[in-house]
Automatic annotation (TrEMBL):
InterPro entries: Aminotrans_V_dom, Cysteine_dSase, PyrdxlP-dep_Trfase, PyrdxlP-dep_Trfase_major, PyrdxlP-dep_Trfase_small
Protein name listed in UniProt: Cysteine desulfurase
Residue ranges annotated for the Aminotransferase class V domain, each copy included: 5-363
GO MF annotation terms: cysteine desulfurase activity; iron-sulfur cluster binding; metal ion binding
UniProt xrefs under Gene3D superfamilies: 1.10.260.50, Aspartate Aminotransferase, domain 1 (3.90.1150.10), Type I PLP-dependent aspartate aminotransferase-like (Major domain) (3.40.640.10)
Length: 379
């Protein structure tokens, strides 16, 4: 029986050996990280070491890192109406790009009538002129623009957006969950006031995320109350083992980033060249800067649900776009925002690569698509 090929790394990644070792070591500890005795201090040490590791990796101070249960919670925590910048001004509304993850599109704690959408181009890149127009009319805003799209892989102009947002007196939140470990990311270089991350996208465990803030950001109201954990920003006993695994994954991912990014870019380009030659496949967001590991494609008449099942039967794990909690294949809101017809959006298939993806895996995927294309699109 042939070994299965995993090409859904944007949904989740395998656990890195370094993270597994850190998690198992943490499970051997007894103490609560809030306890003052030796056992508690040892658990606290693991949490703070991971906090320092993530902070250093993204250009922040450890005191500005808040661990959460997931990237979704981190996004919800970041989208707070009470946030204040260095000038002391408070944001009164929220603007989000139309291609954000659903956890951002939900708006956090902003009321629905205080949330606006920023348009994107046909290539899935934020329309900065539309952002300027949105900011011109109205009070200071919190703007949320992801660093890299989870479906198309398109890299967003967050540094340029930061300049525009700050000139208007607003704040910028960047969902960097797909960017960390795949492209360099530093909150100072891109001008992010808040950024969010998730452990399981970089080889850490599921169930751990983080909100990172730049210096001078105030007014963050905790979403969970009832304890003083995470510097009073998120109540509840910390997930020591998960956080330790997160820190270990960050170290491993950043150490391997230059080599992994180069190798995945070559594999991605090989995959795309092969796809284009079969059944008239086209690549979304082609021609703009993208993550080195992400390919979203379709072909005339293709149905994503049928294609995903077909790939699965051929031993290849792929996706129709973003991972959906229902487990069902959903039309892509990202492609709809890019101006594609619903019939096209329903036919998009995503293949995403990772650090253990090999040329043979790409060849297997192309072999499967050649077979599926001839079968699914016949006539």
């Amino acid at each position: 029986m042939r070994t299965r090929v995993y090409l859904d790394w944007n949904a989740t990644t395998p656990l890195r050996p370094e993270a597994r070792a850190a998690i198992l070591a943490a499970y051997d500890l007894t103490g609560n990280p809030s306890s003052v005795h030796a056992e508690g201090r040892e658990a606290r040490r693991l949490v703070e070491e991971a906090r320092a590791t993530l902070a250093a990796a993204v250009g922040a101070q450890p005191r500005n890192v808040v661990f959460t249960s997931a990237g979704t919670e981190a996004n919800a925590l970041a989208l707070s109406p009470g946030l204040r910048g260095r000038s002391g001004g408070q944001v009164e509304r929220l603007l989000v790009s139309a291609v954000e993850h659903v956890s951002v599109l939900a708006g956090g704690r902003f009321p629905a009538d205080k949330i606006g959408l920023i348009q994107v181009t046909r290539s899935g890149v934020v329309d900065l002129d539309h952002l300027k127009a949105q900011l011109k009319d109205g009070p200071p805003a919190l703007v949320s623009i992801m660093a890299a799209n989870n479906e198309t892989g398109a890299l967003q102009p967050v540094a340029e957006a930061a300049t525009i947002v700050h000139e208007s007196g607003g704040l910028l939140h960047v969902d960097a969950i797909q960017a960390l470990g795949k492209v360099p990311f530093d909150i100072n270089l891109v001008g992010a006031d808040l950024a969010t991350f998730s452990a399981h996208k970089i080889g850490g465990p599921k169930g751990v995320g983080a909100l990172v803030m730049s210096e001078g950001i105030g007014g963050l109201e905790p979403a969970l109350r009832g304890g003083g954990q995470e510097l009073n920003r998120r109540a509840g006993t910390e997930n020591v083992a998960g956080i330790a695994g997160f820190g270990a994954a960050v170290k491993a991912a950043l150490q391997a980033l230059p080599e992994d990014a180069k190798r995945m870019t070559n594999l991605r380009d090989h995959l795309e060249n092969g796809l284009r030659g079969i059944a008239g496949a086209t690549i979304f967001a082609d021609g703009v800067a993208r993550l080195p590991n992400t390919v979203l494609f379709t072909a005339p008449g293709l149905k994503a649900e049928t294609a995903v099942i077909g790939f699965d039967l051929e031993g290849i794990a792929v996706s129709s776009g973003s991972a959906c909690s229902s487990g069902k294949v959903q039309p892509s809101h990202v492609l709809s925002a890019m101006g594609y017809d619903p019939a096209v959006a329903q036919g998009a298939v995503r293949l995403s690569l990772g650090w253990s993806t090999e040329p043979e895996h790409i060849n297997r995927a192309l072999e499967a698509w050649r077979k599926l294309g001839n079968t699914l699109l016949k006539g």
